[in-house]
Amino acid sequence: MRVLRKTAVSAAVAAVVLAVSAASSDASTAGGPKGFRPPADSLRALAAPINLAVGTAIIPFDLDHPDYAKIAGEQFSTVTPGNEMKWQVVEPTRGTYDWSGGDRLVEFARKHNQKVRGHTLLWHNQLPTWLTEGVNNGTISNDELRSLLRKHIFDEVTHFKGKIWQWDVANEFFTDSNPSRINPNNFWVAHLGEGIIADAFRWAHQADPHALLFYNDYNIAGEDGSNAKSDAVYAWVKEQLKQGVPIHGIGDQGHLDTQFGFPTQMKADLQRFADLGLKVAITEADVRTFVNNPTEQVPTSNLALLAHPYEFSEMLKACLAVRECLSFTVWGFGDADSWVPGFFTGEGYATIYDVNLNPKAAYTAMQEDLALAAHGAPHRPGSHHHR
Ligand code: 9MR
Q1: DSSP code at position 139
Q2: Would you say residue 12 lies in a domain?
Q3: Which end of the chain has less neighbouring CB within 10 Å, N or C?
Q4: Is residue 39 part of a domain?
Q5: Domain of 274, in residue numbers
Q6: CATH number of the CATH domain containing 152
Q7: Does any ligand 1 atom lie closer than 6 A to the CB of residue 83?
Q8: Which atom of ligand 1 is the closest one to the Cα of 343?
């Protein structure tokens, strides 16, 4: 069945692509400024008619590699720096900023008519050593830590002001427990209290009132099975909104693993955030599975091979079904560069292109879903019964 469906839809993709290519260069709305036009069958072009941004994290930061840069530019309408806007990278030495990576990404995005997701201002990971050491050895007091954070957020958001579409202001504050709650042992919470999250949003909003400010986390769209983490974030964000905290969106990272099955309430969870008046986004999509050989990235079973495109497709469809879902971003697009094998022993195959940057079945599934979402299925001629 799956195979038949795929064949039929592939024909639909082809038909749409022909129609789009035949149209005049006006189709460049899908594309970009003069001189740059993405292919009609690219993910970004297929998603353009419904105004969904399809994105990728730029990991590795390989914008000089022609094959890599070609895919990054042609397929995606939004980009996220994998690491280049994190505090550790932008202020490796206290008081000395290095914006070079972030600036480079912003320039790449401008050339390719892409929007930028800024990532991330307040997180417990990838902090500069001078900061964590200073806090741990007592030379940086909590008061000073607070003013350092305020300065970090103001300086960074101001530096990129007007160039960032969505900022992941705060990242990964909730526990993976049932019930879930803001982690009291989180570096920021332990030193400055839970209210620091709201302050971060207020500071970011003051620095760039036009950027959309997101709370970003993993397993907050049902991936934990119990929905406990989603419930906790939902209750928290509802309260923040009541207090007037400038939070505009919730990002579900979307790091899935085929061994757990697809989280069927993803769409409902995204929708209930949207019903609070928030935008939503899938911000770091990938689907890992068990692999035979980490360097070859070949799944161990047929089931895994089938589950992989299925889960990408279901996740994309959950976003497509929710009007307020603005963007669907994958966390890197090539298996050779994914973070997964380094973090999950024995797992991999998590992205939509293989180790040689050839598109996988998950890529095709996304093309098909986007084509259907944007253009519908071809109309059938009426059937006449002959007696
Ligand atoms: O992809 C990032 C990788 O290069 C870094 O080594 C890692 C450090 O923790 O962070 C990765 O990105 C993370 C993102 O910033 C937040 N969500 C989880 C991502 C994968 O670990």
Answers
A1: S
A2: no
A3: C
A4: no
A5: 50-376
A6: 3.20.20.80
A7: yes
A8: 21
Query: 59-66 long-range CB contacts below 8 Å, 24 or more apart?
Result: 59/83, 59/331, 59/332, 59/337, 59/338, 59/339, 60/337, 61/101, 61/104, 61/105, 62/337, 63/104, 63/105, 63/108
Q: Is 125 in the pocket of ligand 1 (CB under 6 A)?
A: yes
Of 333, 367, 366, 364, the closest CA to residue 350 belongs to 333
Q: How far is the CA of 1 from the centre of ligand 1 (A)?
A: 37
- For ligand 1, say whether the CB of 175 is within 6 Å of any of its atoms: no
Evaluate: CB of 350 within 6 angstroms of ligand 1.
no
- Is there a domain that residue 172 lies in? yes
CA of 249 to the centre of ligand 1 (A): 20
- CA nearest ligand 1 atom 2, residue: 82
Residue 246 near residue 213 (C-beta atoms within 8 A) = yes
Rounded distance between C-alpha atoms, residue 262 and residue 85, angstroms: 31
Q: How remote is the CA of residue 287 from the centroid of ligand 1, in Å? A: 15
Overall domain count for the chain: 1
Q: Which atom, in ligand 1's list, is nearest to the CA of 120?
A: 15
Atom of ligand 1 nearest to the CA of 119: 15
Torsion 271-273-277-281 (CA) sign: negative
How many angstroms separate the alpha carbon of residue 13 from the centre of ligand 1? 33
- How many residues comprise the chain? 387
Catalytic residue positions? 172, 284
pLDDT in tens, the chain (387 residues): 333 344 444 555 555 554 444 333 333 344 445 668 999 999 999 999 999 999 999 999 999 999 999 999 999 999 999 999 999 999 999 999 999 999 999 999 999 999 999 999 999 999 999 999 999 999 999 999 999 999 999 999 999 999 999 999 999 999 999 999 999 999 999 999 999 999 999 999 999 999 999 999 999 999 999 999 999 999 999 999 999 999 999 999 999 999 999 999 999 999 999 999 999 999 999 999 999 988 889 999 999 999 999 999 999 999 999 999 999 999 999 999 999 999 999 999 999 999 999 999 999 999 999 999 999 988 888 876 666
Residue closest via CA to ligand 1's atom 21 equals 339
